[in-house]
Amino acid sequence: MPPNVLSVTTSSSHNFSKSSVPSIKLITAWGIEGDCHAGETVQHRSRLHIRPPPANLRQVHLIPIEILHKVSTALSAEQKTQLFQPGALGQNITTEGVDLLSLGVGTELRFVGAPTGDTGAEAEEAIVVLQGVRNPCPQIDRFQSGLKERFLVRDADRQIVGRLAGVMATVKQGGIIRPGMGIMVVKPAAHVPLGPV
Question: 42: pLDDT confidence band, cut at 50, 70 and 90?
Answer without folding.
Answer: confident
